[in-house]
């Protein structure tokens, strides 16, 4: 199975989830209204979209340089420190504890949540906030995403860290790639195995959940859905042996910072304060 | 605001109070000063570098066990996983490590130890003395064995091994079996590793005729496997066989762990503890090598007539002489005292200076080996030959002590082998057979037996997988004919149920080894290295982690990378694990450290 078929499968599953959720959570009427005046909505959120796109483009275009700086220039391998810190704090590493509950069903569930659930969780609020009367929430979301990526990617250059499964296969199992090796083709496209601290899976998911809480009056149903998904994803990253507990904590902190910045400023404000 | 006066007063006040305090607490002050002046004995601390489990699960597991034991011995250990290319940079080029654990492809000749351990290479990069080991005794013995043969050389080597067993610059944990899978129609005795084994596979017709069209597809896995195709770089060229297939050598060493035309005719397999006589080497670019050992040893090498590079340029004796000059100094004389290549360096010192290699005519070279003995000297001729017209311009300096020859990725390698580089992408790398190669010409003389029937396939295709599971999936799906990257023993189950697939296992001379940086303050002490080397239960690792698909070293020689075919097992106290069944006897370890003059405080080993 090559990359193309893995991507196609992801696209089909996530599209189905998005359509279902859009009909249930947003409702057909709102969707139709939104589709009728796409133009001003797009204009309103053009700036945050551009900012996010710029960060993603910079990341994509500088992967080689970033990896060289990470390894050759800075070379801060914090993997042993993460392991030792958790050894100090807990009698048994939280990842190992989670993995004692291992079962094929649980592994399938967490693998599904980690790949498909995550893609859905990030994409759905974009659709949902796009269908609102104002574009404020969408701008907040996009700005928060941008902040997440900016800080997260900076950390990835600053710190080399490998996840538990790569650190010690006798203590921790790499459940995702043992069970679903093909997923590596997909994750290889967007990530390196040294990009562990903090967990962007956690931070982006938590960002969506926190914002769902703040917009609970508009989409009450979205709060429990995103909450369950976000927490499942955070647990999944540890259960699957991909992230340390510290990464998840750092990811949650990053989510709080991002939401705070997203709520307090808009791109327009930022530009005004700089200009 | 009144500035100036108040702070001054305050400072005076503070100074007065401080003085009073100090004199009042004179006893305390003494303790304070002694603390401040001698910052007490610290805990011995080590980092252990190895590749992440994704790249080599077994190396990671060995480190896991080793870490637990070293930690129990009271040492502060930090295991640092680091991607393979960076690990090689850190260990081989930068010397930034304390201890490393890797899978090493295995030694061919006893003389390989020369490059690995001779102090003349202490400041060079690459596989030249990465341990920074320097010992006059070892240097003498390494030089002496080069000049001897037969029983005298054996005695010198025995002395060398005894000395190295005591000083332990590195130690072997286990010899893993080669494990892989193949489609049943392919007649592979083992997962192929070396170029000559790939060639044997390509020469052997698949069992069911017409079963396979197209190239022989070989499954490999890893990160960035095709990023660098530079045959003289050490940090990344990890596609098994690839560069040795594209860049042919003068002669090839026959393979120990391969039955068939490519193998050594040996009763015991595998063994690298038996010197291979030069006559048994397989003639490749050379159709004849005449050894003259009356007086000083020399070899007259005759190239096959009509050899060309893959780009059509003719290959002659000048290219061969050039290759040895380039390996000795990749700047070809521009940089002060030269910039040697990080590979093939040990072999290159077999001749005194590469300038002495005499190009007799376009097809003949005379190589003076001086006092070197023939079995060691033959290794010199297995170096891949590089085209002068491509590599000569690469001698230019691009940075301080860096030439383009060392930094180039060499994306489209041009060699002179039977297979030429065609293309590389994210999922495959393709080699095509060279139709009019001299070795395939019926008029050529002394054609190696392994080429009988070459080729039965339309070339060789490497199928690249990001991880081991994907490689196994590709084999099961029929996309791969045979796997070449090592399969961890735990993956064997996944091949068991499929009737179209056969499991391949074969003992090998590749090894997992623990290397020490002797520049580390504690690791400079051979006694410490010797105790550390005992802190891993090799038998336990073999039976529990490898499911018995590996061999534990039991002799002095096999602890240093030379395994004997007949495995005479006399348990060795030097390798003796202080404990049972993988469980460390902490008291015993502490006594060991105690005996060599180290002290413990609260279970912590002090420097």
TrEMBL record, chain A:
| Localization | Membrane
User: Gene3D superfamilies, from UniProt?
Assistant: Phosphatidic acid phosphatase type 2/haloperoxidase
GO CC annotation? membrane
Q: What is its main location?
A: membrane
Q: How does it sit in the membrane?
A: Multi-pass membrane protein
Where is the chain membrane-spanning?
6-26, 38-58, 109-132, 141-162, 196-214, 221-242, 248-266
> Cross-referenced CDD domains, in alphabetical order?
PAP2_Aur1_like (cd03386)
SMART domains hit by this protein: acidPPc
The UniProt keyword set, sorted, is: Membrane, Transmembrane, Transmembrane helix
What InterPro entries does the record tag this protein with?
Aur1/Ipt1, IPC_Synthase-Related, PAP2/HPO, PAP2/HPO_sf
Task: Enumerate the spans annotated as Phosphatidic acid phosphatase type 2/haloperoxidase domain.
Answer: 137-263
- A single Pfam family it belongs to is PAP2_3
* Protein name in the entry: PA-phosphatase-like phosphoesterase
Annotated source species: Natrialba taiwanensis DSM 12281
